[in-house]
Amino acid sequence: MPDFGQTQTTQIPSAVQEHYDRNLLEHSQSALVHGLFAQKKKITESTDTIKFRKYALLPKATIPLVEGVNPTPHRLAREDITARVSTYGAYVEVTDEVEILNVDPILTVASDRTGRQAGETLDELVKNVINAGANVMWAGGVASRNNIVSGVTVEDFRKINRAMQNLNSPYFYEHIKAGTGQGTQPIKPSYLCITHPDVIYDLEQLTGWVPVSQYGNAAAIHDYEVANALKADCILIANGHQNRDAIMKCGVPVLDDIIQVLDYV
Predict the structure, then answer these.
(1) If exposure means fewest CB atoms within 10 Å of the residue's CB, which of 52, 159, 167, 258 is most exposed?
(2) How many CB atoms neighbour CB 106 within 10 A?
């Protein structure tokens, strides 16, 4: 749980006698993904609410026209969806003695941690809104999360894909042709899927899953495998533990920083 209060010298003592490595340990960082593919709109300064509007499709006109007779007009039906901007925030309070006496760059650390906190907070808020939706399909076709008894299967994803197509949901990405790199392959039109690491483990057990060891290039990232299994397109980031030359051979877009994903929205 959060630890509230001032950061004083009792929490961060001055330099100790033992050898001290001033390179602080890095905290593990979760990927901020839930807001990357959302609509981003600006609102005027005079309001904290934005309204989105859509109009329902008209029914098919299957009755033949009669000469001289006007058909019955169809009425447009609209649906308004509103969203309200809320303010969230937190801060770290550091005393002047901590800043003066401590060998750690406390203000830099505080700035980095609060910046990361802001990003993770926003990601969590967006995720909560998405998860509150009523359109849900559970693994195995069960009625609720509590009834799940097995991992996700290929059949589950096929049913999801069928349901999306029956609702005329457009694919997130259009067809991508194979690249010129060795072993590349075209990507079919696909939906976007955000996947938990626990689900990735289940995906690796699916029939038809191609492990990294069977790739022509064994260094290819398994995120590419996940995207193909989910019928989702894949964008790889080149600042991880594998070099750009290796992941370029997957035949999908490779970016230097996650912020560049916005160019594909």
Answers:
(1) 167
(2) 18
